[in-house]
């Protein structure tokens, strides 16, 4: 990993170690499988994916990328975690997922190669794992076509988010592996909004993601105090 790549080798190693479990819905990635229909439907409601060229930044094992392809999009998934990408590629072959490809490349490098080539760019649960989130936001803005959509999701940085998303999810409920998130790397909505504005992306919609540990149910709401999603557009 050279110093110019906006990635944390420890973060890549963390997800690579679990790569073989990406498509096990009862594994550490169970929360991603559970929330995926919510985020997919939200995206597809705002911009119907059928026939669009879509890029999923930080795709991991391909859970969101695969589901967007099944909505009729032509999808490219990119990540720097080699093992996770291999799992995504294998799953696409086994499941015969239409119109999907995966590349091991950073968002910044791809933006230099293919600026303005995508109708939709998604970057979900990834910004809190990189050294420079604003650089990824800028790259996403460069990758999307004028008038196109960029979607982000991440975790707020406050006491409630620390209590629920780190202490609760990692140490009490054991929903995800301990150490998955670092509090200092979490991102306030105001900070993400500022990065979007700097990248000339207009924030058009925000949603919160909530969870009930008793029922095991997730839902989207107006509460962005913990997990939240942004829908943004590049000026036409």
UniProtKB/TrEMBL annotation:
Which of the seven top EC classes does this enzyme belong to?
transferase
Source domain of life: Bacteria
Q: Pathway listed for it?
A: Cofactor biosynthesis; ubiquinone biosynthesis
Task: Identify the keywords attached in UniProt to this record, alphabetized.
Answer: Methyltransferase, S-adenosyl-L-methionine, Transferase, Ubiquinone biosynthesis
| Reactions this protein catalyses | a 3-demethylubiquinol + S-adenosyl-L-methionine = a ubiquinol + S-adenosyl-L-homocysteine + H(+); a 3-(all-trans-polyprenyl)benzene-1,2-diol + S-adenosyl-L-methionine = a 2-methoxy-6-(all-trans-polyprenyl)phenol + S-adenosyl-L-homocysteine + H(+)
* Annotated positions binding S-adenosyl-L-methionine: 39, 58, 79, 124
Q: Which is a Pfam family this sequence falls into?
A: Methyltransf_23
Its EC number is 2.1.1.222, 2.1.1.64
Residues in a coiled coil are none
Residues crossing the lipid bilayer are none
Single annotated GO MF: 3-demethylubiquinol 3-O-methyltransferase activity
Name the Gene Ontology biological process terms: methylation
Role: O-methyltransferase that catalyzes the 2 O-methylation steps in the ubiquinone biosynthetic pathway.
Q: Which NCBIfam families match?
A: UbiG
What protein family does this chain belong to? Belongs to the methyltransferase superfamily. UbiG/COQ3 family.
Designated name of the protein? Ubiquinone biosynthesis O-methyltransferase
Lineage, opening ranks: Bacteria, Pseudomonadati, Pseudomonadota, Betaproteobacteria, Burkholderiales
């Amino acid at each position: 990993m050279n110093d110019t790549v906006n990635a944390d080798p420890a973060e890549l190693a963390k997800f690579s170690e679990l790569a073989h479990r990406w498509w096990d819905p009862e594994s550490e990635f169970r929360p991603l499988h559970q929330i995926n229909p919510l985020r997919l439907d939200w995206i597809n409601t705002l911009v119907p994916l059928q026939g669009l060229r879509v890029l999923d930044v930080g795709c991991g094992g391909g859970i969101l990328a695969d589901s967007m392809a099944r909505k009729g999009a032509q999808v490219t998934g990119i990540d720097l975690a080699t093992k996770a990408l291999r799992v995504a590629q294998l799953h696409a072959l086994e499941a015969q997922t239409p119109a999907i490809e995966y590349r091991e490349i950073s968002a910044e490098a791809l933006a230099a190669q293919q600026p303005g080539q995508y109708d939709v760019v998604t970057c979900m649960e990834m910004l809190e794992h990189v050294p420079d989130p604003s650089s990824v936001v800028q790259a996403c803005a460069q990758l999307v076509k004028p008038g196109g959509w960029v979607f982000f999701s991440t975790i707020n940085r406050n006491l409630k988010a620390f209590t629920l998303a780190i202490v609760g999810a990692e140490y009490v409920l054991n929903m995800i592996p301990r150490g998955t998130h670092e509090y200092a790397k979490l991102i306030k909505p105001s900070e993400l909004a500022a990065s979007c504005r700097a990248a000339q992306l207009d924030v058009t919609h925000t949603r919160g993601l909530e969870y009930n540990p008793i029922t095991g149910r997730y839902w989207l709401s107006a509460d962005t105090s913990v997990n939240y999603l942004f829908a943004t557009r590049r000026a036409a």
